[in-house]
Amino acid sequence: MNPRIMVLAHNHPDLHPGGTEIFAHDLFHAYKRAGCDALFIGATNDVHRERRPGTSFQAINDAGDEMLFWAGHFDRFNMCQTDLYAVAPDFARLLKSWAPDVVHIHHLVLWGIELPMLIRRVLPNCRIVMTLHDYYQICPNDGLMIHRGTKTRYTKADAIGRLSGLDGFTPDQHAMRAVNLRNHLRAVDHFISPSEFLRDRYIEWGINPDRISVIHNGRPTVAPVPKRDIGTAGMPNVFGYFGNLNPWKGADVLLEAGRILAADMVDFNLRIHGVALYQTDQFTSRIADLVAQSGPQVHHIGAYQREDIPDLMARVDWVVVPSIWWENAPLVIQEAFQHGRPVITSSIGGMAEMVRHGHDGIHVRPDDPAELARVMKDCATNPKLWKKLSGHVRPPPGIDDVAEQYLAMIRRMVRPDFVAA
To answer: Which InterPro entries match (predicted)?
Structure first.
């Protein structure tokens, strides 16, 4: 018998197409294809949707099994729902009426750390699974595990918050935050991490190793686009960046590298796909200045839709993922591998796990434009290297295969005596 699964994310990909929302939504559809009854709920607030007084729920499309949950006001430091008494009764009624066997949580932002305990109180026999997509519970600096001011990375949180660089919070507040989050997460039956690196961080933070497993993310199967025809005299010299532009994704590092290459008279092209949503004027001005200073070889393509990716991938030889924080499982790396593109990426976190240095991509030191420029120059002028690396690229796991891994685990939780055929 297939379990009845409620899938919860901190937004819907139609409103905020981030990697977590996209994966959660894809997995939801894979659950349905596997024969499960499934319901997808994305939390939202007035950043993306206008409030509709009188109900906590809104439609997102014509599907009857997808909806939005109005999350009210959210305390990002404490990860708590400040409108709990306003929103909890409506969600509790939905839990009782839909009666899932399993609630699969993909994020607690907007929902609040109170969510697992609420589910446990309303449905004592329901199993709770949580996929940990980042480090929000560990690090109050938006889960980056990086100092806000100095950009110094750390792998283990400091009990009094000195490493996060946040202003306005006392050591006692940092300590109580960690205790409160760990206590609430006791209601979760099992955690999933898409990378070994992230799993290790949560074990160091206090999650029992027996309660957290690794299942790598997957992608819906797509036909790979052909590799760019470089001809007998051409070079694999077109680089692509895909994703949001923010201070932690390293787009400015890549643009600095592009400026170095242009000044060095290297024959290359760099295509920047994405926009700087919700960023400071200082950062957006810096990006615009770097693009302008790099000359005609650097093109800021701008926003793109999911359906545009194959066409955009067809125009590049390499995908660059220059993040300066501990990315866990970047969607763009899997998209690049789906289309046979080798990846140049920072040598840290889940990025270093996903890309095998010298096999299907190249590792570079994070936040080092000079080294990145040197590597890009080597890649742009070495067809044999490109042919070798692109020849070793393999597509990521299919989302339906990943769903089966989740379901095998879920069935054992719902029915401990279950044995797969």
So the answer is: Glyco_trans_1, Glyco_trans_4-like_N
